[in-house]
Design the sequence.
């Protein structure tokens, strides 16, 4: 039994432990930590299940499934937090997921891949398309934020309406990027696909019913653990001396994206950079163009209106992350120093969010 | 007779109609709409006349003529609006022309061209030079705006002086870009020129006097229609429930740039992307490096001082437009999704300007 | 005797003149000008001495020496100014050194090189690595500034702590870029190194002791002249009608960087663009990733705490300089118009700093 499997089983134990911690009232801090750890193996299982079902469904439907359920863990945590009224934490975790995927995941992948391989290459055209799509996402969250910043008297109603309109455009754009990558220009993405298939050679005929069951059970368990996590979040983080902003931007996304981290780094070390970047950048794009707008619409339905008016500092963080990630990825080559620069940018942002003073709403 | 010609003749009818609407007092809304429609065929005719005269004058003088009269319609509308004291509308229409050319025109060209041709290519060096020049233009309008934003007590006199100094630098830079593209490095632009010539094979010896007359008559008529348009603008747009900002940024530039739109899209569908981009980006550059600084100087002469202190939100809009257009064009390749991303960015900006609250001066 | 040598000897005369001006009380303006001129030949001699010693020490140790003492003049001026409590002037001169190297030095090199050679080329990978590193530097100074701007109540203590943390990360990143360029990926930089060697063919065996003595004497003299410069700075510049901001951003860096200017332009005219850019961009990187963080730490030790909270306008200036320099250098090609665009950007920034009103602290 590999170390990876043992770790998986140990982490699974945190599911009952976190539930016990909740009902036996062991304190919010312990609930928060154990629920956070319990989500890790569930997220990994959901990822595996989604990929297995995708193999059965074939490239088109399977691709769609991957594209919509790829960030299911984050979506569930966010919906639970939104229902609990923690709108600022949800926004912060969107910010943090984008930053984390572009800087931490891509940075680690390029660094660890680069330590083994002098220079790694990937499709520059795909990198540029992703850059352009991420620029659009930055524009989308920039506009409501800039509007509120430059014209402070603006009503919440207007921000809501603008955010809804923006959300609809983003979801349409996301659908079109899928059409592009899976249909009209799939040849550009062939390298990555070929690698994915190579990885899946071992398991030819996954059992659809088994994996659907796994997906269902894990989704339910993630939802439960998310409730525990969200309920204990405020007390636990204040005990740790952390602000809700830091928790939302740094801690929650690390829990939600752990599976992507592992995958992106593993394949990068095998010199499969196209696949590695498609996981890291693809996950960022999915958050920005799909998860965030879906949350705006879901919030509207729940009566917990969420707009896309981020705090100016979060906006700055997302904008600089996209900028440096684009600069580094646009030439289709990477090395260990480029990975280090991304990680250094992540560290700087981490420091900044750690020191950021408590302000309006986000406490 | 082609549909295009019929449309042209029908639109010409709006010249007498708009004049009648004005003198018979049919209401500002009708004057505004008919004058706007009347400008379309006049702008197209001015474009044709300028190109025909340019053929007679030869590449150098003709190129200069194109480079200075290419945006004559917008310049005339802007000067009329400036004389009428609508400084904010003029600034908004500069913003809107830059955005419209980079996002709407280039986006439509890449989308419609890309639907016919899987991948279209153009000179990446030219694209990069244009990117750098547009970055300079962003810096030029950023500095007065940032100065006013970060140091609110600054006097209007200082902004005026800074704007004049900036305007002189920009006009010099514009002259040098012409020297570069027409003299010292014209070989980089040869592809586009060859295409232009191919288009003009049919009409070998244009009649200089005829086209000069056309240019003169059209210029006069555009000036008259611009007066009607500007006089009726405020009442008409408020009847339509639109702010002056939205009108200036979205509506006026669409009227002023209709000819460029048609040309850029038509040649893109014929896979002549170098020509298409030189129309779209070239027009943006001309607005930013020539029209805007000329307006600053003209405003000084008219005693209607116009500075380059744009509203922060307009600045954000121009900056993000340049950013995404640069990202998409810098590799010298385009496809339908890239066109879609530009159009989506334009839609997002359109929404934002639609929802932007009425503020100081611009009402 | 060449004109260059005569100029050198004439400038050396300003050392005794400036000292005399100080003790005989000829007025602050004369002290300021003569001390500024006296620093020029000393900076040049320090540069020569550092390179000669580097030849003796061999590529690794010599590279390290160059990398740490390359901006010794600026570092000495800054430390003297910091001790005198002129924190804002120090910050302004950091801003100005980055801007000056990226726009003025690189612009002049590309313009004058481009007037002789139609198109000049350099390693695009190195240009991109440098771009990414400069982006990181922008992020580093952006975060404290943005934090203070978006959350005005923030304590100076927090800004200090954040700045110290940022400084440590930057110095680490700088060390890693040296490891990358001198050890793991030195082949990428071979072109530049080969050129450097070719330049040094004439002087095979420099006398280590002689040049160490030169370095020591010049360092002492630079420190003395810096004292004179800093002491007379405030009175002298106000007599000239200049603000401390303009002096710090434009004047001081021109004095401190004169040697780099001369080298970068000279080698560009010999079509050695790799070397030229490594001087210009390398000097910017050194200021941003080494000198600025060292000053933060030195300030802490001196009890003259310097944070990285720049004025928003300085931040804007650095950000746009990095942006346009990256756009122009990222393709590994240059021509005279690109040089002109950089110089135009420098002129625009110069105007802006000239007109910038006197505000808080920086008077």
Sequence:
């Amino acid at each position: 039994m590999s170390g990876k499997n043992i770790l998986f089983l140990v982490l699974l134990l945190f599911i009952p432990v976190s539930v016990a911690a909740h009902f036996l009232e062991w304190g919010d801090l312990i609930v928060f930590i154990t629920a956070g750890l319990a989500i890790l193996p569930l997220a990994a299982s959901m990822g595996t299940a989604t990929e297995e079902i995708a193999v059965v469904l074939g490239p088109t439907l399977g691709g769609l499934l991957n594209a919509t359920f790829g960030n299911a863990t984050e979506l569930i945590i966010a919906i639970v937090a939104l229902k609990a009224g923690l709108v600022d934490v949800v926004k912060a975790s969107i910010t943090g997921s984008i930053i984390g995927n572009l800087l931490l995941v891509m940075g680690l992948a390029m660094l660890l891949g680069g330590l083994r391989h002098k220079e790694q290459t990937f499709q520059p055209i795909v990198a540029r398309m992703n850059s352009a799509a991420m620029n659009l996402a930055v524009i989308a969250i920039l506009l409501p934020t800039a509007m509120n910043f430059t014209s402070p008297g603006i009503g919440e109603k207007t921000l809501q309406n603008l955010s809804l309109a923006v959300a609809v455009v983003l979801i349409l754009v996301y659908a079109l990027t899928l059409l592009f990558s899976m249909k009209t220009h799939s040849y550009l993405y062939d390298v990555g696909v070929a690698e994915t298939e190579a990885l899946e050679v071992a398991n030819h005929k996954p059992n659809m019913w088994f994996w659907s069951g796994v997906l269902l059970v894990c989704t339910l368990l993630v939802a439960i653990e998310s409730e525990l996590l969200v309920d204990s979040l405020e007390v636990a983080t204040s005990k740790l001396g952390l602000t809700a902003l830091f928790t939302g931007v740094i801690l929650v996304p690390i829990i939600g994206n752990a599976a992507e981290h592992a995958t992106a780094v593993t394949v990068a070390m095998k010199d499969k950079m196209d696949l590695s970047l498609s996981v890291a950048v693809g996950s960022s794009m999915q958050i920005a163009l799909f998860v965030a707008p879906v949350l705006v619409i879901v919030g509207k339905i729940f009566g917990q209106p969420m707009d896309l008016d981020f705090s100016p500092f979060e906006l700055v963080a997302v904008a600089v992350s996209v900028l440096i990630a684009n600069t580094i990825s646009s030439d289709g080559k990477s090395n260990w120093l480029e990975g280090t620069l991304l990680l250094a940018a992540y560290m700087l942002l981490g420091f900044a969010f750690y020191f950021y003073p408590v302000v309006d709403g986000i406490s």
